Amino acid sequence: MLKFLLTETFPKGVLNIQLHRPEALNALNTGLLAELADTLDNAARNDAVRAVVISGDSRAFAAGADIREMADLNAIGVMNDPRPQHWSRIAAFPKPIIAAVNGFALGGGCELVMHADIVIASRDARFGQPEIKLGIIPGAGGTQRLIRAVGKSLASQMVLTGEPISAQRAYDAGLVSELTEPDLTLERAQQVAEAIAAQAPLAVNQAKDVLLRAQETHLSAGLAYERKAFTLLAATEDRNEGIQAFIEKRRPEYKGR
Ligand code: DAK
Prior knowledge:
The chain has 257 residues and is α/β, with parallel strands linked by helices. It has two domains: 5-197, 2-enoyl-CoA Hydratase, Chain A, domain 1, CATH 3.90.226; 201-248, Lyase 2-enoyl-coa Hydratase, Chain  A, domain 2 (Orthogonal Bundle), CATH 1.10.12. Helix content is 47%, strand content 16%. The chain has twelve helices and ten strands. The protein has helices at 30-45, 67-71, 75-79, 83-91, 108-115, 142-150, 152-161, 167-173, 185-197, 201-213, 219-233, 237-247, and strands at residues 5-10, 14-19, 51-55, 60-62, 97-101, 104-106, 118-122, 126-128, 165-166, 178-180. A six-stranded mixed sheet has the order 1-2-3-5-7-10, with helices on both faces. The longest helix has 16 residues, at 30-45. It is globular. The relative contact order is 0.12. The structure holds 4-(N,N-dimethylamino)cinnamoyl-COA. 4-(N,N-dimethylamino)cinnamoyl-COA (DAK) is lined by residues 24-25, 27, 63-68, 81, 83-84, 87, 104, 106-108, 130-131, 134, 139-140.
């Protein structure tokens, strides 16, 4: 029984996860993060799930880590904090994640957005890393992923001033792939997730893996990694099905084999 999330799996292979702590603007307390990591672990093992949409509500995607909870932690508490392990499990989820962002995505909320493969945002969304205003710095990859997403100058400005940016700015900088009207964000994210869920699952998972690898490595190693994944997929039934369906002018029926 989940306390901080609402989940629904749709027949076309999309799992929707809604962060649900509206009284705290969906602040990511330890319980919520644990539920999210557990839910994704289960989804990784469930063949019926091909893509995941993570959303908040109209006011906030998530306003960061739970500041009240953080206030109780001393240095030893931070060292023994289970949250980095939850974040690692979220980062290791092998299927595509689409973030549907309305309202605030701040601190850990912005970092969660950057754990998604694709970000669809409402025109009223705000993205920021305000930790500096609390005397701390981002702790779930915010400095590293933000710089890769928006470049050095804008990332440094956001992290060092703590000031948020608009959805338009986030879109222009490449943090967001599409902007929508506020009441269409979730619907659009679901459409994108369904489009992915209709593709060959093994190819989708390999594509995600190789795309993420691009952030970890230099070009020649990344290209070699891509070549290995490409070759591996030549051994799948779905690759034959995809090509055969094109030749026969019909829709492919992928089996994940
Ligand atoms: N934590 C706890 N409660 C929060 C919250 C948060 N981050 N953000 C908002 N709330 C609560 C408010 O306290 C308020 O509760 P009540 O007073 O009604 O009980 C309720 O949500 C509504 O918020 P406001 O009344 O403040 O709403 P406004 O519209 O006036 O302002 C706001 C919205 C988003 C501008 C404001 O709430 C705000 O500035 N929130 C804090 C944003 C923030 O600083 N976020 C960064 C938190 S630090 C780590 C990994 C990650 C992190 C740390 C460690 N490890 C792996 C070790 C991440 C750190 C952070 O994210």
